[in-house]
Design a protein that fits this description.
Blueprint: E1 5-8, E2 11-13, E3 20-26, H1 33-46, E4 50-55, H2 58-61, H3 64-68, H4 81-88, H5 92-105, E5 108-113, H6 116-125, E6 130-132, H7 140-148, E7 153-156, H8 162-173, E8 179-184, H9 198-206, E9 212-216, H10 222-229, E10 234-238, H11 256-273, H12 285-291, E11 293-297, E12 312-316, H13 327-330, H14 353-357
């Protein structure tokens, strides 16, 4: 069983604990703090465990030329990429306001630190865990500094190779054992043929001592539910209030009804996974009582007869007799009373049946 650890105060992940569901608000709030609050409340009402944002300190994430380049996309909030990003970036004080609101609503609150200075701020903000976005997964100085903070970490793996992810695992593990890795493909929206859910299984083999999860950008909920069936212990999905809003992430995001359905479906799948112990369950008793088969006498038999296979048949019988799986153990046994044709052969009618058939 993969390692489990406390991701948030009072909330374990991994092992047999319920899947931790992250509603990734990101920057789908359009730069409006009131919309951000509505999204936090929506995440809570939909049953998600955590509302997550993306925090950048722009001068540390981008160089000057990147911020100054023209940005003419239909999703742009400014003439340059810097203007666009500044419109979408909440201040430190606004983050404190959102964190307080999340506490009032009753949902865990965190953000992806998109650069080292953003991580410093989030550490000061005392978020329960750090999320490492795929863009920083191969940023090893960042990973090392973040791991040394000692907070639990959730690391996405979009755009990376297995070789890189082995290095990521070793880098983080050296300083922090409380982390997990999410299978992720960095395309928005993500097509099914590029999801590669089987990587979840490969990660479970490569890194058996940490939980594995899934960060999805596909349309709909089916693939994320399948990830849980494969053993994903954390699911992260982008969310929005309206897929038609301006912004490149909205099309790959879940609207409130979809997020609520995803949570319901995940909880249903978790319940259906069961213990792995195969046995007849109490709920199967009515069917077994009605249709379960038993061994019967194919012909009339006299007391003292030594049984052979051609004397026996299997039928739905009343009363219930020896179960069909024990029929071969009856061969060579002696019956202790007369039997009519088609009569049930019960354990008490067979000499020494219980001693050997039930060993």
């Amino acid at each position: 069983m993969p390692l489990k650890f406390e991701l948030c105060p009072g909330r374990m992940v991994g092992g047999s604990h319920p899947c931790f569901i992250i509603a990734e608000i990101g920057q789908n709030h359009q730069g409006d703090i009131e919309i951000a609050k509505k999204m936090i409340k929506m995440a809570k009402e939909s049953g998600a465990d955590c509302a997550k944002f993306q925090k950048s300190e722009l001068a540390f994430k981008f160089n000057k030329r990147a911020l100054e380049r023209p940005y003419t996309s239909q999703h742009s909030w400014g003439k340059t990429y810097g203007d666009h990003k500044r419109h979408l970036e909440f201040s430190h004080e606004q983050y404190r306001e959102l964190q307080k609101y999340a506490q009032e609503v009753g949902i865990y609150f965190t953000a992806s630190g998109m650069d080292e200075m953003a991580v410093e701020f989030l550490h000061e903000l005392d978020v329960p865990f750090f999320k490492v976005g795929s863009g920083d997964t191969n940023n090893f100085p960042y990973l090392e500094k973040t791991a040394k903070k000692g907070r639990p970490m959730v690391v996405s793996s979009g755009m990376q190779s297995m070789e890189t992810m082995r290095r990521v695992y070793q880098t983080v593990k050296e300083h922090n054992s409380n982390f997990c890795i999410l299978q992720c493909t960095s395309a928005y929206p993500l097509e099914a043929q590029d999801v590669n859910l089987r990587v979840i299984t490969e990660y479970q083999k490569e890194f058996p001592d940490i939980p594995i999860g899934y960060s999805g950008h596909e349309s709909g909920i089916s693939i994320s539910v399948a990830a849980v069936a494969l053993g994903a212990k954390i699911i992260e999905r982008h969310v929005t209030l309206d897929k038609t809003w301006k912004g490149s992430d909205h099309a790959a995001s879940l609207e409130p009804s979809e997020l609520a359905e995803l949570v319901r479906a995940i909880r249903l799948v978790e319940a259906s996974l069961g213990s792995g112990l195969k046995q007849m369950l109490p709920c199967e008793t009515p069917c077994h009582d009605k249709l379960g088969k038993s061994v019967v006498a194919k012909v009339a038999l006299s007391r003292g007869t030594v049984l052979t296979m051609d004397m026996l048949a299997v039928k739905v019988a009343e009363p219930r007799g020896v179960p069909p799986e024990d029929i071969f153990q009856l061969v060579g046994k002696t019956i202790t009373e007369d039997l009519q044709e088609d009569e049930s052969l019960t354990p008490e009618m067979v000499d020494s049946y219980g001693k050997k058939a039930k060993k």
